[in-house]
Each structure stands twice: as C-alpha cells, then as structure tokens.
Amino acid sequence: MYDYIEVVFKGERKEIYANPQQFPFKVGDFVIVEADKGEDLGEVNQVGALLSMKKSDAELKKILRKADKEDLKKLAENRVKEKSAFQVCKLKIEKHGLKMKLVDVEYQFDGNKITFYFTAERRVDFRELVKDLAAQYKVRIELRQIGVRDEAKRMGGYGICGRKLCCSSFLKEFKPITTQCAKEQFLPLNPQKLSGVCGRLMCCLNYERSYYLEVLSKFPPVDSQVKTEKGIATIEKIDVFTEEAILKFENDEYGRMSREEIIKLPQISPAIADKIRSQEENNQSDNQES
Fold it and tell me: What backbone phi and psi angles, to 5 degrees, belong to 253?
C-alpha cells in the first residue's frame, strides 16, 4: 500500500495526492481525486516511497476512489465537449479582437470548471471574454496564460532525435538555456538546429553540459595561445571524448595534443605572441640579407 500517489491529467499535468484509505493502486489505474470545489479524474503515473521526497509541504488533496466504467465514459464525453469549447472560444477571441493563441481546453471531470490555456506575447485583458464564456457554459471559467515551452509540453510531439519530447515525457521543470550552452559544447550557432518544436533552445543542451565543463576545466582556455616546438599555436577546440586539444599553428596547419602534454606548455599573452612573431620575422629577414 502507498501513502502517496502521483496522478497525471490531460496535457501532462501531474500532482501528488494522499492515499489515506490505502487503495492498492498501480501505474495505469484511473482514479477520482479531490479538485477545486469538485472532483477530477486522472491516471496513476507513479507510486512508491520516493513520492514522499517529491511532495511539497503543503497539505495534499486526497484520492477518493478508483474510477469505474461510467467515469471513463464521462471522461470520453468531456473530451468531445473540449473540442467544441475550443472552437467556441476561438470565435469569441476573434470577436473581442484579442491577441492571444488558444492552445488547449480542459474540462474538470465533474464539469464544474473549464480551463482554457493560451499563449500571448504580453498580458491580455480577457475579462470580457471570461464573462462571455461563463454566460454560455454557466460554470467556472479559468483562462491560464502559458509559455511556448509549456505549450509544447501540453501538446506533446517528437523531437529531431525521433523520441518523444523530453518536456512531455520526463522533465519536471524547465531550466534556463542560453547559447552559451551550445558554445561550450562547440556546436554551430544555427537556430534551426538548436531549437526544439517550441521554437526555443532545446532542453537537451543542458544534459551533457556539466561533463563538457568538467573536461574543459582541465585545459587552458579555448582561444588561448601556447608556445610549442613548432611555434605559437592557438587552442581552437577541445575534443572532450579523447581529451585532446586541437591546435592551429600560424601556417594554418592543425595538430592535436593531449592534456598531459599541453598543460606543460607555457601560455603566452597576445602581446608576447606579437613580440615573438616580430622577432622571428626580423630573424628571417636578417638571414635572407646575409
């Protein structure tokens, strides 16, 4: 028996509920749970002791019972109603001239509340729209603005890797991602290749970042210059898999050097590098004259 059960609803919305009656649920079971001023229906997503570590300190809502065939039939009816409500809301958005994109509609299981999810570039005054929808459906209406990454999470889909989107399969929260993540992994700064279906930088750019930073910390900084037997070389890139530095020499030739080798070389500043080049050029000029 489990004290806590994680339940998933439409759009990958997940919450943890208390199981005071110790129902023997398993993953995949449909359950009726407490909701805001009513009841909701969801699917058991996770059970076990780990949920006691994931739950917040706030008081949890309770699981009421296992869903039966009639409950599942009503759930299917709600899904049909959601499609109709989606079209109605779109027409009303056009009627009120609001700059917002309707993303999804979700009926609470008992029909006491309808939530409309939308995206917009800025805040939208939708008070008149809410009044219009409430007058038609005569239930509680909630309009919730979400970001484009949340939109991708709700709608689901597949990434360029061919797998289900991370945000709609296992990610619990979104972490900040910048182009610096791509630079640190020596990826081409091509927005089309770095962006996910949401149009933002892909979440997976964060997955291997810590490993790259760990390897990079063992080497001199990229673009720094070192003095080798072949002359001055610039560190163009670090191959994190072989843990080798890729060097570019002044004659445009390239070479590789292991971490053990390169950390023994003296690093030189740009000013010193220019001075060395000047001396070498003068020496070559003197040799040619003689």
Answer: -85, 155
What distances in angstroms separate CA 133 from CA 10, 105, 192, one per listed residue?
A: 21, 12, 39
Q: How far apart are CA 230 and CA 198, in angstroms?
A: 48
Packing angle between helix 127-137 and helix 69-96, nearest 10 degrees?
140
Cα separation, 90 vs 103, whole angstroms = 10
pLDDT for 98-134, tens place per residue? 999 999 999 999 999 999 999 999 999 999 999 999 9
For every residue of 217-232, DSSP letters joined together read: TTSPPTT-EEEETTEE
Token pair recorded at residue 184 = 């640190």
Amino acid at 99: K
Give the separation between CA 102 and CA 146, rounded to whole angstroms. 10
Phi, psi of 225 (to 5 degrees): -115, 145
Indicate the DSSP class of residue 12: G
Residue spans of alpha helices (H) in 173-289:
179-184, 191-194, 209-216, 259-262, 270-289
**What's the pTM?**
0.76
